[in-house]
Every structure is written in C-alpha cells, then in structure tokens.
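=== Structure Prediction Worksheet ===
Name of assembly: unnamed complex
Input type: mixed (protein and possibly other molecules)
Chain count: two
Listed entries:
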Amino acid sequence: MDEYYQGEVPGVSDAGIEVSGLAKAYGKVVALESVSFTVAAGTVCGLLGPNGSGKTTTVSILSTALRPDEGSARVCGFDVVADAAAVRSVVGLAGQFAAVDANLSGRENLALIGRLSRLGRRSARERAGELLEGFGLTEAADRLVRTYSGGMRRRLDVAAALAHRPPVLFMDEPTAGLDPESRFALWEILRQLVAGGTTVLLTTQYLEEADALADQVVIIDAGRVVEVGTPTALKARVGAVVFSLGFTDDDAAAQAAGVLAGAGHRPERDGTALRVRAAGGSAALVGVLRALEGSAPEPTSVGVREPSLDDVFLALTGKAPVTPAGRDERKRGAA
Amino acid sequence: MAAVTIPEPTLRPAPGPAARLHWAVADGLTVTKRNLIAYSRTPALLVFAVIQPVMFVLLFRYVFGGAIKVDVPGGYVSYLTPGIIGQSAAFASFGTAVGLAREIQKGVVDRYRSMPMARSAVLVGRLVADTLRMIITVLVLLGVSVAVGFRFHSGAWQAVAMVALAVGFGVSICAVSAFIGFAIRDEESVASFGLIWLFPLTFVSAAFVPVQSMPSWLQVFADNQPVTIVIDEMRALALGGPLATHGWESAVCVLGTFAVFLPLAVRAYRRA
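=== Predicted Assembly ===
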C-alpha cells in the first residue's frame, strides 16, 4: 500500500459538527444524559470512553439512525432530525463491524454502496475502482470478501463509507480487534483523508489511538462529557507516562508508597502494585528509583507504559471507568 | 476548505412522490440483486434448503403415507403434494428472518440508514429475493412430487393458480418472519427460534392428514386456521373440486397476514 485514498471533499460552507445537550434512553437504561461538543470542519475529534459510555449511541444519532430524546445536533449545518435526508448525503459511517457483504467481491460491495448512494452505474463503477486503488485493495478487488483478512475487511468498510465522497466521516471503533499493522494502516488512511479536508468523528477505547489521530478529544463516561481537550492537554493532566512498580507484598508496597509520597511523587497503590504518573522521560524514572533506593524495599518489577484509558479516568474522575448496562455491546448483542 | 458551496446532493429539491417511488423501486432492486448474487455464491445453502422438503415428500409418500387413509383421486400422493408445497413455502421464510437479523447485527442496516437511499430497500430486496428462491423450491418440489406419482387432476390454469397461491402464502409468512427477524435482531436467537411457531400451524392442519382423524377439540383449531384454509384451496385447485369453498377465505388469509405483518415489520425495522 503505497498510495492511499486522497479525500476529495465537495465544498461545504461548514463541514463541522455541533452537538448540544443530547439525551437518549432505551426504556429505563439511560445511554446519554447530556452530551455537548463541537467539531471544527476538517479536524478529527476522538470520542473516548469505555464500553457503554454512549459513544455508539452518539454516532447513531449523528448518522440519523436514532432520534435523540432531547437536545439537538447539526452536521454541516443540517439538523440530524429535521434535515435527516440532507445529513445522510453528507456523512459516511464506518461502524463497529465491517458491514460489507462476505459473499460479494470487494469491487461489487463498493459498486453496490455507490449505487445506493445515488451514483450512476458508471460513476459507481469508477468510484469503486478509485477507492480500491486508494485503499490498496486492487489486487483483491475481485475476490469474495469472505476470503479477506480482518484488516482488509475494515479497509473495505471505510472505503464503502466514502463512496459518495462525504465531507464528514463517522468511525465507530474502527480499529477494534485489528492487529497493530492493520491498525497503523488504517490510521494512515485517516490522516490522508483529513489532509484532504474530511471532518472525522472517531470513537475509540484506546487513548493511544485518540492521541495519534485526534485534534480534540471528548471523553465521555456514563452518557456525560467528562472532559474536552487536545490530547496534549489531556496528557499533561494525566501524565505522559505511567511507571508501574511491583513489590513482594502489601506492606512493602505501602512502605514504598510512603517514601515516594515523601519525595514529591503521587503514587497510587493497588495491593502489591504501585503506579506513578509522571510528565515523562527517563529522568523521571531515575528520580523514582533513586527515591526508593536504600529507604524502601526493592521493587520486584518495574514497568513503563503509556497512560491507558483507565489512568485517564482515574485522573479525571478519581474512579475507574464504570460500565453500566453496556449499550454499546448490547445493541447488537456482540462484544 | 475555503469553498462555500453546499455539496451537490443537497442541492436537489426534496423529491416528489414519483421520484421517491422511483428510488424505492431502484434501491429495492439493487438490494434484491445483491441478495441473489449472495445466494448464487452459497449453492450449498440453496441445495440444503431444497433437500429438506424433498425428504419430507419422500418420507410422507413412502413411510407414513400408506397408513393415512384419504379419499381423493390419485391417492395419498395427490393429497400430500399441495400440503407439502404449502408447508415448504412457509418454511422457506426461515431465511428471511435469519438474513434480516444478520444484517442488523453486522451493522449493514446501520450503514444503510446513514445513506441517502430508500429505507424500504432492505425489506423489499430481501422479500423479492426470497420470493424468487421460494419459487425455485416450489418448482423443484413439484417436479419431485410428479416423479413419485403426483398428477394434476384439473386444468392448466388451476395448476398455475395452485403454485401462485403457494408462493403468495409463502410470501405472507415471509412478512411474519421479517417482523420476527427485525424484532429479535440477533441471528443466533432468530435461528434457534426458527420455525417453532410454524410447526403447530403446519402440522395441526389438513396439510398431511385429514382433519377428521384428529381429536374433536383439535379439529376446532385445525379446521379454522389459515394453513388448512390455504392448503384446502390448493388441493381443490390441484385435484378439481369446488374452488369457491376456500377461495375468498384463503385470499383473506394471505392478504390479511401481509397487511398485518408488513407494517409491523416496517415498524420493528425503524426501531431496530
């Protein structure tokens, strides 16, 4: 895959997204309490949250599949309820599952979606060829999709979402379940699309993914917006790295926590494990280890990792992410 | 991104009723074609879908048939054929429920709903494709039945009308299945729910045995339920006999089922 699809965006006065006070309940299960955010045209917004936080519900409302109980949303200036038909003509949706037909070839799938997106027979065919090339699927174009790998299916699914050249693309956990290589390939495609001017709303459970792609991150939990900011600002609050230290027993860990707290760090203890969030760099690690040296038990393990969604939640809300009824999975009964 | 024009699709005026009908038909046919291509690429599925009713024909013809006394020209095979064709047309609706549930579960419906296409296309495309598939099943069964001794004892148009009634009945059951598929939404659950509801309807009927052989309390149900009404009419068409007895009743059954369950299916689709 040398070449990627270059997003071509028809001129739009404002390809942005405005979400204001969205609320949605399924019976007694509240999926969204009140969600508001805006996405500027031509930028990537990462909607970050655990399972059941309302990510998929938000995307479903924005792509006109669901009606909100309260609140409103505009995509490219069109109201998702009052101007639903107009919204459909300017958005593309790549959902949690590769919604492509396994018994059709890649080319047939794209031509089908093109036809259903109101392209003429010839334009649908041409567009299919263009997308296959852009997504590195030309060689596999005439093979049935059931022979495709997971990564190829996902690429085809994103290609299908772009059949009618939508200026706004919604991606619901586009890389869930993909191997790292396929994930990076998809990220690269997204970057190219955004460089071409496409506005992208991306839901993800991975902070790393939001960090790699998003200009702005909206963190939601239990149907509410917890935090909005750039990935950099977010990481500054959470810490760029997390050191995890393992000890032989609880007492040793507690003792080490005391020592570190005395040295100006903010350790969080969980049984025999400690984690310390830091701004980053090897100097910070050396500082932590030096503080422990001689005055606390030796850690049995030392790990350095990127902050995870759990760390972000812990930092922002003081609690681990909650997973209520889990509407995101419940919706289609899959994990 | 400094362009200030609205994207081309939205420049179109809101389509009038004629244009909407045009797109509904065009999109319905596009989805039909997709479904037919998918069927043609899973021939094993088609073959198995036909083998089961063929086994029913052979079982009833040669195993149970000898013990079942009927009073129709040509003997039990004449009695059986309209019954088994009606039952198989109804059972063919299984694929409708499973197929639609799968499309919801796999996110295909979500994608379609985010697209500027006719919303009816998923249902229309599935029903048309499944109707064509059902016609093939019915014709194969008819051929097998003829091979094991079935003969029409009426005219050509009655024979065609019998096949048409069987297919019409099957399509009305497909509408029920579409509702089930959209309401349950989960492919595995739909598959295990399967044909449970059709078993009592098709077996507690005049499809395989004369209703008079059942206990009287069961006859009340068997005599007055749609499957008996439709199959009695098919039998009258195939073997000759008074057509009027069940003619309008079976039309009411078929059209009534359709009229009740198609809107229910559409409603369940909107909510799915």
